[in-house]
Description:
The complex is a heterotrimer. By secondary structure, chain A is an alpha/beta fold.
Amino acid sequence: MTNVNYFKDQFEQLQDSGPATAIAELRTDGFNTFNKSGLPTYKLEEWKYTNISSLFDKEYQFANTAPAIQLSDIDAIRLAGHEQANELVFVNGRFIPALSTIRSTASQLVILALEEAAKGKYEQLVKAHLGQSSEYLKDGIHALNTSFIQDGLFLLVPKGQQLTEPVYIYHISDARQQNTLSQPRSLIFVEENAKLQLTETYTTLGTSESFTNEVLEVVVKENAFVEYYKIQHDGLNASQVGSTHIHQIGRSHVHTVVVSLNGGVIRNNLNLVLDAAGNETHLYGLYLLKGKSHVDNHTLVDNKQPNCFSNQLYKGIAGDASTGVFSGRIIVQPDAQKTNAYQSNKNIILSDQATINTKPQLEIFADDVKCSHGCTVGQLDEEALFYLRARGIPKEAAEVLLLEAYAADILVQIKPEPLRNHVAELIYEHLSIS
Amino acid sequence: MLSIKNIHANIEGKEILKGINLEIKAGEVHAIMGPNGSGKSTLASVLAGREEYEVTEGEVTFLEKDLLELSTEDRAREGLFLAFQYPVEIPGVSTTNFIKAAVNEKRKYQGEELLDAVAFLKMMKQKMALVEIDQSLLSRSINEGFSGGEKKRNEVFQMAMLEPKLAILDETDSGLDIDALRIVANGINKLRNENRAILLITHYQRLLDYIQPDFVHVLYNGKIVKSGTKELALELEDKGYDFITDEADLAASL
Amino acid sequence: MNEDLNMLEQTALNEYKYGFVTDIDTDIIPKGLNEDVVTLISKKKNEPEWMLNWRLKAYAHWLKLEEPKWPNVKYPPINYQDIIYYAAPKKKEQLNSLDEVDPELLRTFEKLGISLNEQKRLTGVAVDVVMDSVSIATSFKEQLSEIGVIFCSISEAIQKHPDLVKKHLGSVVPMTDNYFAALNSAVFTDGSFCYIPKGVRCPMELSTYFRINAENSGQFERTLIIAEEESYVSYLEGCTAPMRDENQLHAAVVELVAMKKAEIKYSTVQNWYPGDKDGNGGIYNFVTKRGMCQGEHSKISWTQVETGSAITWKYPSVILKGDYSIGEFYSVAFTNHHQQADTGTKMIHLGKNTRSRIVSKGISAGQSQNSYRGLVRAAKGATNARNYSQCDSLLLGDKCGAHTFPYIEVKNKTAIVEHEATTSKIGEDQLFYCRQRGIDAETAVALIVNGFAKEVMNQLPMEFAIEAQKLLAISMEGSVG
């Protein structure tokens, strides 16, 4: 079992290896929190339905030696549309510039190692925003990532740059030799009037266990436009806690889609902080679960300023012995008058071994608001199934058709066409193989 | 009965009414017509006391009282009735109970005896026949799930029950098919008498085929740019608003 | 609307009209809790040994538990040694008729609008009255006993019907269930007991009226209702307390058991003293209420109108064990000033073809916080379970909060669960419409709020519905303009 002492040793080694920078200080804070809270257990309200601490019954290692990954290994995992994309590669949680391909020009897109950015021109920016998400995720697992910030990514889209080349981030965990723990960390700025399309995807090599504990912090400024896509289609040996934190500090537009098809135990935290008047945010999610997959989507929309609009739609299907969890919190702070916030979570349960737990929450401290949430758990429409079968379509094919249709509302929210088609294929394959 | 002198009104800092003058006497029926956005509904809202509108200039006298000094509900209790263009739905509150509360509030204000359930029901039966409204509608929640025609009929029914001195009908004809319009107009005609003034606000002339006005005014860009008799409405129907608005724009540009 | 808001804030607090204290000779034991106190309570009630042992076991378990921290409410720590666990109006011996009841007591209940005098009683409602720790009187006992219905205080039931009590007490809410249930099991002093025999439709509403009177005392009542096969009962509960500056603890347990084809309808109008407008005093209402649909086709329905208490923490629940059983929860919770409410329900679907329905209407005013918290669980065996939940919140004023925390857990592929929630304020258009018809803002808000709550109010028995509507209007005074 990976115990606290292992992390303590690793932490001390890391701190001793470099000078006392602002990042090192942040790491110390993180480690203190981790030491105090430990890994979250189901006794914590936010972790009621997902047991992450038991995953650490296994022995995980940080991969300290340089991994044996070649540029050619990347070819197998590239996403559709990569010819026009900026491709950034993380291996075992570390950003590897040598494996990455930047297609935009330096004036269009700034990409740096996080440690480097923290020293130079962007020092103040990093200082002001790196680690802000700890305010929202105070648990031990989030703190564990902060304790080991190392070889992180700094990405900035400068003012006015409507980036046409999307950014793809490939996370590779090398579990060919040992159980691997990866902790990627990124800090992203989308400046005034800029536009960014960002997609993340995850691949585990080998058959040992991988555990990815990611933190991604995005800061969005006035009149910026951000699309964020997360595609999870890794092996059953791949577990993950992914925390995406989007801070809209200027009046801006954010659009997110999280698609989870395959994996072991997955927990996604998606936190939107609407910190400027008139922000607009759309959150979509799709989880199509089979086998023993366990996917837990936690969303938070914190409305801090007036006149914000947010809309959420998460749809899930739980088959076999899988578990789908949705927990959505909408907070409307006292100053956030005229907030419009909507949330909907729909689930289909296909098997008696499957479980759906859903917990939509509204916490409202302002009066002039329109908020609603709804959730349903049900089945495939029997009438529709019968209709298709009566037209000669076999039951299995009919089910795939209906499930695909069910997923379609979310799929269309993936705006770039190559990516959308890519995910559509993944969904079709995923549903067809039983 | 109603005297409007040089009324100017703003909403969110934007001036909508730019100096309206209008005199209405008991027994008269006035029609205010005008293109969309001319300020027709604003005028109705200002008279009824909607608080989003700020009156910056001018005065309104209603039955010898300073109307603008009165609260919305006191204006209603004095006998000013507004039939809404878009009557709001109030879930769970039955129409009958609502009207009973309104009738008795007015009686209390006027120093009259309150109606008991029996007297109220008797009055209701009588007025229901007048506007051809169905009993079942009145036991439902106010306007909830009502069709457009039912909502407007309910407004006219409330007018009948509250027996106002001045009734302002804001686009009461909008969204009605010809049968519904006929029923609603008949109801209004039956409520016409020498003690009651009526102010019709409408975009189209067709309502005036059923309810003949004594005077017609054209509102454009926050001002009454032309007044006349019912022939003016026919002329508008014939020539469109342009023939007046062009004239007004020309006059304004000089 | 801004003007209305100012009015709303300026309007003086409406006095809590049940806030008087009755000057009556009270038998009080010293403050504090230990084994001896538990034993003393049992002894004062002349209980059999098994009951004492049950209490002691509960007490021992309570010592091991920690007070729950998860509700969305805040209050200073409660000193459990600073509470009086037994306070009873003194009486010399067993009363034989109402004529022997202390006239001061009779006057108290007259003032509360509950007449104990046989002639003046509401027709068709049998009343059990509990003041502080003991039951004062139960009416219509004889008429009820003719058809086999037992309606008496739980103390009396322990003496006269020990087998029934032994069998069912703690069967729905085990003494180990939670912190406050364990505390109640150790120190409960009185409460009501109803037993409806097979095939009997109870011809009148059974009602218990709870009143806290003594200072520094807690109230820990225990109610047990058993409906045998194919029986029906409608039970009403009302509560008030004097105005005091300190907080008083009320930790009751209610257990309902419905056998095959039986139906229990349980209605509550909760009006414990809510504290003053600055948040001083008031009752902490920490209550465990649960019903067990034991037999197939049984039905349990909870209806509550909650306007009182400084803090309310309760989740009347139904365990749907019998196939085809039905659970319902209808709730109106109004909070004003500094009140906090964390209330809702749990519907636990175990049997096949079970159905449940939840309608919750929360209204927040002043600086209050009003939370709905509910659990709907469809277990593996709950084939064709159905639930529909609707939770609406209405906000009156900009300093209050409305929160919704539903938990939905489904483990069966044929179950269908739907939850919808909305939060909004009273529409300015609605208010203007009413005012244009001559109805002032305060009356208009009352009308709209009553309309908002109507679906729940309709579930109450007639006499209670009128009382509840008045109560809602009174509670709202001083909160809306």
